[in-house]
Amino acid sequence: MLRQIVELEELKHREHDRALVRMQFYFQLRRDIDYHDSHFKPWLERLERKEPVDGNQVICLFLTSDEYQRRFGTVLTHHNTECK
What we know:
Layout: H1 2-6, H2 9-28, H3 41-48, H4 55-63, H5 66-70
Helix pairs in contact: 2-4
């Protein structure tokens, strides 16, 4: 019974998307997730609405975020509108 639940495609996709977003916070932004954080909350709401998550777009959005770019300098050279 447990194996049947774990092998459900819906569960696999949901957990994959959640893990992808969490990994970006951990590895790109180098910080823990605060569930009340204004940057994480929209992602959490999107995941709860079961909206499709494109992995390439997620990574792009994190790499073009102000927080990520400010780790390397004061000039912001990219914007989230570049992510399609």
